[in-house]
Design brief:
The chain has 93 residues and is an alpha+beta fold. It contains four helices and three strands. Helix 1 crosses helix 2 and helix 3 packs across helix 4.
């Protein structure tokens, strides 16, 4: 799990409320990284921390931003997602 502290606790509460089977799936670590990142980004949306992604043709890379913050990262979509989640986790905690 990439989340820590209060963010991790609140994320577990969020997915438990949404769907108990989903909560059990994530808690037992059956969810792969891509699915888990999508769920975490969805949760951050629900608490007002918006992570956006875009692709730059010129540089041939992905770019992500976190709303209301100057953080941005460049790389593959998966790298951008992971780095953005780490920063959003820091902001939330």
């Amino acid at each position: 799990m990439i989340l820590t502290g209060k963010a991790k606790e609140d994320f577990y509460k969020y997915i438990n409320i949404k769907d108990y089977k989903l909560f059990d799936y994530v808690r037992k670590k059956y969810a792969n990284e891509i699915v888990l990142n999508a769920l975490i980004i969805d949760w951050f949306d629900s608490v007002g921390i918006i992570i956006t992604f875009d692709y730059f043709d010129l540089n041939k890379c992905f770019y992500s931003e976190i709303s209301n913050n100057s953080f941005s990262t460049v790389g593959t979509r998966q790298e951008c997602a992971k780095n953005s989640i780490l920063k959003a986790n820091e902001i939330y905690n």
